[in-house]
Automatic annotation (TrEMBL):
It comes from Flavobacterium frigidimaris. It comes from the Bacteria. Pathway: Cell wall biogenesis; peptidoglycan biosynthesis. Residues 428-682 form the Penicillin-binding protein transpeptidase domain. Pfam families: Transgly, Transpeptidase. Gene3D superfamilies: Biosynthetic peptidoglycan transglycosylase-like, DD-peptidase/beta-lactamase superfamily. PANTHER family: BINDING PROTEIN TRANSPEPTIDASE, PUTATIVE-RELATED, PENICILLIN-BINDING PROTEIN 1B. In the C-terminal section; belongs to the transpeptidase family. In the N-terminal section; belongs to the glycosyltransferase 51 family. The chain crosses the membrane at residues 25-45. Its main location: membrane. This is Penicillin-binding protein. The lineage of its organism: Bacteria, Pseudomonadati, Bacteroidota, Flavobacteriia, Flavobacteriales. The keyword RNA-binding does not apply. InterPro entries: Beta-lactam/transpept-like, Glyco_trans_51, Glycosyltr_51/Transpeptidase, Lysozyme-like_dom_sf, PBP_transglycosylase, PCN-bd_Tpept.
Amino acid sequence: MATKKNNQPNSNKDINYYKKKFWRVFAYTLLGILAFFLFASWGLFGSMPSFEDLENPDSNLATEIISSDGVVLGKYFKTNRSQLKYSDLPKSLVEALVATEDARFYEHSGIDGRGTLRAVFSLGTNGGASTLTQQLAKQLFHGEGSKFLPFRIVQKIKEWIIAIRLERQYTKNEILAMYCNVYDFGNYSVGVSSAAQTYFSKDPKDLTMDESAILVGMFKNSGLYNPVRNPEGVKNRRNVVLGQMEKAKMITTAEKLRLQALPITLKFKLESHREGTATYFREYLRDYMKKWVAENKKPDGSDYDIYKDGLKIYTTIDSRMQSYAEEAVSEHMKNLQQQFFIEQKTNKNAPFVNITQAETERIMMQAMKNSTRWAIMKDMDKSEDDIIASFKVKTQMRIFTWKGERDTIMTPLDSIRYYKHFLQSGLMAMEPQTGSIKAWVGGINYKYFQYDHVGQGARQVGSTFKPFVYATAIEQLNMSPCDSILDGPFMIHKGRHHVTEDWEPRNSDNKYRGMVTLKQGLANSINTVSAKLIDRTGPEAVVELTQKLGVKTEIPVQPSIALGAVDITVEDMVAAYSTFANQGVYVKPQFLSRIENKSGEVIYEPIPESHDVLNKDIAFAVIKLLEGVTETGSGARLRTEGGGSGDNRWTGYPYMFRNPIAGKTGTTQNQSDGWFMGMVPNLVTGVWVGCEDRSARFKSLTYGQGATAALPVWAYFMKLCYKDEALQISKSEFERPANLSIKVDCYSRPAVVKDTTQTEQNTDEFQL
């Protein structure tokens, strides 16, 4: 007993000793943890985001190109990421995300204590502990991080600190929206907005519940659960998400079973700079923006980056009209191309017509030197002989056809000749009163043919230049559309108007009609009439007026310009013709409405440019001249119901327009270029058709003239526009000026309905 009594004090001493030691260790541990957190927040274990970083995280946003009717036409990006507000997210996606990734999201303040303890005690086998806010912190500021455990612990602590800061800085809804905006869903799509477009070709608000569940399932691992590569795995993961929604009582058991039974249905479309809507316009705009960012700086003086600053570029393009224009070009060009291939079957030097072997070799050599193959091999220090030899070796390649891409084997040299066969087209439509460009089609397929035939390519305009001559004559000589002029042999002798030798223009049919009115002269595109008019006004006056009409190319001061021996872009031609429709006031074409930064602040708004060119009476007189072209002249097939030579290539014929149309066809020498300029009161559209090389062409007027090559594109486009009543394209008369001083209503014999087999009398024969 004495022994027990003697041991009791020692036992109490031992217990007190261990208690003190425990609390000392506990205090030191707690202080160590607090210090660790403090040091981490100070950035001693690596940089931490500042208040400014949290306020404006580097979200690397794609710049969006937006149409006048609110449709995203395309994007500029290195990372395809688009910004969404919480209100843009579908309810089903938000519910699925919270149910699957962070069931207590609305209860915690950035860190889920219960989930963290569960993860610690189960060593991660019973689910992770990362909240949505922590995952957002990792996405924004750290990425995946290190696999080394000590570093991983440091990163996890930093995530906790950032998560708490984010919760203080933003609302729960804002955090959800940010998380949905930064996640990489693969296939170059970052964020729910891009993913919805890529996988389902939809805006996020239009996603169904099972589509939302698919995207939420991808948050776990977008590489593994990619619906394009692993549809079975995606279906299983989607069904897990739907199960979580049922568990959270967001959907019923019956709804879950119905949705789980649905197949994985995609409408996959990879967003690309070279595909989609308005590709040529988007590239033209990209070049414009390169100059814009050099001249317009951020408030801090730094440069804007169109690939990551999330700008919103609001354009004047109407997505519906753009779609109709692309359809019109596609449908007619594939139809006309068939005829071109038929004609070239008997041509040993196809597609080139009437050129020498030396000229052919020059064209082919230039094409080789412009190719990517040549540039790559040149960079590899290959000799010119070796490079040329490589163009003669057969190789496997994918080529463009109007029936879709096709894999084949041919030499690169043969592929160059093959692509030289294709007819190209350029179309631009514009509101004459505002200068707003509504549609822009620079070619037949941007992926294979990058050259823009609207803003980049100036081509010879043929008889579409003649209205500028007539307008000059009406202004300078006080003539009217009803005045008469003799269609007969005519010559401008050497020395007059700078001609270096006698110039005698001829009509395409080598016939003369005697006395005709100016209206008849333009309607039938009579060359001698245009030549006589420019002889009276002088070419200087015509050049001056044409430049006032906005034509930027250099025009030779020669009488031959009266027949269209001038290279002008489609863009400039549309702007010039729009001046007539806008009562003589030129308005510079406008493709931008405004530019906003990612916060929605307007950072640029263009100022419209305009100036007076002609008085209202003269402009209206030219309109009446151009109406004659579609009433009785080379554009009359817009109204006829009969047929004609080659009418199977007049895509969409018969057109049977009944409303007033002012227009002009144009065909250059040897049918290298076909044009049609068409106007109604609130829309002016120009169309050009031809091959890349002027020596590749139709052999005859039947298919090579503007009335066959270009007019059907305009007609097809306008029929689609008129069918869409929401566009409100006018069918009214052009506005007649009050107290009109020029006689425009000429007497004519009743029109005789006839077929339109007549070829266009505007093939230009001239000497330069």
